[in-house]
Amino acid sequence: MHELGVLNALVHTVEGIVREEGLTEVEKIVIEVGELSGIVPRYIEQCYPAAVYKTFMEKTALELVVVPGIVKCRECGRVFNAAANDLYCLDCGGQNLEILEGNDMIVKEIVCR
Amino acid sequence: MNGFKVLQVKQSVFADNDRRAEELRQELKKQRVFLLNLMSSPGAGKTTLLSRTIEALDGKLKVGVMEADIDSDVDARTIESFGAKVIQLHTGGMCHLDADMTRQGLEALGTGDVELAVLENVGNLVCPAEFDTGAVKNAMILSVPEGDDKPLKYPLIFSVCDVVLINKTDVLPYFDFDMEKCAANIRMRNPKAKIIPVCARTGEGIDAWVGWLCDEVTKWKKP
């Protein structure tokens, strides 16, 4: 359900771009999903056909690119992949982390004409 | 590539909603209506706290409430009994409200005679955090039985909140809930969040909360 709401928002955002750019056809969209975004790529893929059903994106292909969740520990300064380490610092065990990358979901590219 | 071109976009998937939310906020500024988005998990005490808040405001602000639920109107009836103008929004299974749904809600509520509009969002800590509703301020309730480690498990919602109300303080003796640890966990995600321990049942902390709310409404209404 969570991913379906996210995809509805995505369709509206792409719709806006299509209108602004005067596009006639969207063949593919490339989406970046951050590991720390709370959005599960597998569920995005599963929900996608339902979200685009009977919209202008019905025939648009989806390509997902997963962006690693990189953080910096505010205690010791170590930079590491938080998603792979359960949000704990590898060196000091701290949980006070600054997210550097992989916190959001972004429309990266639109293949269109 | 058959006439296809690649458009580099680099926009958040929520860009369209974010834009609509900002438009709504600007309109509310002109109308001098303060919109509060109230979020929490199911059962944290949104409706009870809201009832207490309306009671404590004692007519100082004209309040309008939008109750968002997947189904039923039990919350709307409760709020109505406290004398506020209220409408029930059914999200039709959706787990959150976005800026457009909020706008429709405000239109149905009618804001001409409202100074403080409250959107009681769907009980959920995931989706509501991602969608800007157009609210002036975001508040969330974390209740003691949910545990002091909630900010670690649901970081996003804590990072988008202006104020966190820690509700049900009357049951603190029965739970291993460490108020200081909880506050530290919240600050890790959001150093700016105002944290107010409250108890909607006994009235503890309600004055501090209502004081914060009245200050924010006053600030917003200044041109």
UniProtKB/TrEMBL annotation, chain A:
Keyword annotations of the record: Metal-binding, Nickel, Zinc
Residues reported to bind Ni(2+): H2
Keyword ATP-binding attributed: no
Keyword field contains Cell membrane: no
Alphabetical list of Pfam families matching this protein: HypA (PF01155)
Gene3D superfamilies for the chain: 3.30.2320.80
Binding site residues for Zn(2+): C73, C76, C89, C92
Family according to the record: Belongs to the HypA/HybF family.
Function summary: Involved in the maturation of [NiFe] hydrogenases. Required for nickel insertion into the metal center of the hydrogenase.
Name of the protein: Hydrogenase maturation factor HypA
Lineage: Bacteria, Bacillati, Bacillota, Clostridia, Eubacteriales
Gene that produces this protein: hypA
Automatic annotation (TrEMBL), chain B:
Domain of life: Bacteria
Organism: Caproiciproducens galactitolivorans
UniProt similarity note: Belongs to the SIMIBI class G3E GTPase family. HypB/HupM subfamily.
Gene3D superfamilies reported for this sequence: P-loop containing nucleotide triphosphate hydrolases
Lineage, highest ranks first: Bacteria, Bacillati, Bacillota, Clostridia, Eubacteriales
Protein name listed in UniProt: Hydrogenase nickel incorporation protein HypB
Domain called CobW/HypB/UreG nucleotide-binding: residue spans: 38-196
Coiled coil: none
Keyword vocabulary terms for this entry: GTP-binding, Hydrolase, Metal-binding, Nickel, Nucleotide-binding, Zinc
Pfam families xrefs: cobW (PF02492)
Classification via PANTHER family: HYDROGENASE MATURATION FACTOR HYPB (PTHR30134:SF2), HYDROGENASE PROTEIN ASSEMBLY PROTEIN, NICKEL CHAPERONE (PTHR30134)
